[in-house]
Every structure is written in structure tokens, then in C-alpha cells.
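# nightly structure sweep
# worker-07 picked up a monomer target from the shared queue
# config: single-sequence mode, recycle default, output format = C-alpha cells
# input follows
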Amino acid sequence: MQYRRLGGTGLLVSEISLGSWLTYGNAVENETAIQTMDRAYELGVNFFDTANVYNHGEAEKVVGEALRRHPRESYVLATKVFFPMSDRPNDSGLSRKHIRESVHASLRRLKLDYVDILYCHRYDRNTPVEETLRAFDDLIREGKVLYGGISEWTAAQIEEAARISDRLLLNHFVVNQPKYNLLHRYIEEEVIPVSRRNGIGQVVFSPLAEGVLTGKYLDSKEAPRDSRAANKKMNYFIHYNLNEQVEGKVRKLKAVADQLGVPMARMALAWILRQDNVASALVGASRPAQVEENVQASGLVLPDDALDAIEDALG
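# output follows
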């Protein structure tokens, strides 16, 4: 496993990180989830991701239980705040009240004193950015959160937060968690340049497009039994329909991977890590074997002719 600095910080995170979206505390048995996290840790993954909203706190409980097996200083843990946790009017968003109460609830579920990273899970149009930044700054000064981050914010929103942080001498956001993969590249045009200027690194989710970029759905009349698409608790989040256009791209990408002699998923992850502003690719895994495959993308450098062939395949 290789490690990268997270944005402009001194924090080192594994190039492959493990998330708990859709899986832990929900579609995967707790013991299997813990075994998967243990295997990831053995293979050098030091970066784990969860959120309060993932199965309404159950994912945090599973992640916390798994990580208690390891020294606290040996891993980096991220969680998130924004989405509703109940139907109460103040139990969502990025107000000072919701942020502080959510962090304390997350720490109780995780049974930890602090989290390394707290993300604003989305942008809150109903709360002044200054209020959110001050709440994050307070939590960082109190030691309950070490670094602040955002997820799926636009370039303009990221720039706004950086400008306010500078003016008020508040701690900056240092990490962004966007969707990014071979089929979804919007961050390349504006988000990455703005992030680079402001010392923000990317930790990208859905790097394999919910499994589409593994190639396992090609030529399948029905989803493979062990796939996310076949799991009723997870398949409603698959946003990539295998229409003819997408399937054509995936077939061409698989041909490039075959020529390289590597699995398609490994190539897709290595393609993401070609970006120096990307600190880590956040994968999901429902069993240890998936982690064992995905970590092999760390350190894999794709040759220029392969990168050209990938661009041709994507059109």
C-alpha cells in the first residue's frame, strides 16, 4: 500500500480507502463487515469512511466495533453530517446546533473521543457558510474533529468557504469527497483546480461506478448473484444503466485492461490515482476478497499509451 498527503495537510492516507455506504449495518452481516475491515487493515488500508446517515447510525456502530481492535493512532476515520436523522426540524443541515449534536451522537455510536475527518455531506443553502465554518472551527479547537471536509460541493461553493475562512482566520476545509470515475468526470474542469489552489485534496467515492466498471454486468441477462445489482438493499442506488452507449464504453475499456493484463477494476482505480490531487479512492467491499483485489491498484502506474487508449474508449 502506498500513502498520500491529504491536500495541504501532513496527514497520510492510504491510496485505497474503505467505505461503509449501503453495506455495513444494512446489507452485509456485521461479522463479515468486521472481517472485511480487518483484512483491509492487514493490507495497509489506514483510511475508513462512514456517515451518521448510513442506515441511520448502524454503519457507524459496526465501523466503530471493527476499529476498536486496532490502536487509535494507526487509522484515519471519517464521518459526515447533513442529511436528516429524524423528522425533527433541527435534525438535518449544517446549522451549529445540528453539527454539534450530530458529532456527539456519532462519537457515542463509534465509542471514540474524536474523528479525524468530519465532512459536510452536502451544501446547505439554508445555513450561512460562516455559521458552518465557525461550528467546524470550534470542534477542531476542542479536539473532537481534526480536519473538516466537504462532499459534492461545487467549485464556487468551495471557493466561497475558503474565502470566508481566510477572512475570519478559521480552519480551512482540507478534503473534498466527490463522485469520480471513468464515466463521471465533472470534477476535472473546475473542482480540482479550485481545490488545488486552496490546499484541498480529493477522496473520491463510486470509483467503480457501483460495479459497472468491473465489467461483471457485461453479457449478463441478470445480475450476478453476489453483485450489488442483485441485492435488493443496495441496487436502488445504482445510477448507471447499462444502455448501449455505456456498455460500448465498458467493452472498450475492458479491452484496454485485457491488453494491460490487469482486471478492469484495478485499471479503473489506477486511472483515478493518476490525478495528483486525488489522495484516495474510496471503495466499498462486502467481503475480504474484494478488498484484496482493490488494494492492488495502489502503486500501479498506467503507461501513456494505455491512458490514450482509455480516452479513445471513452470518446
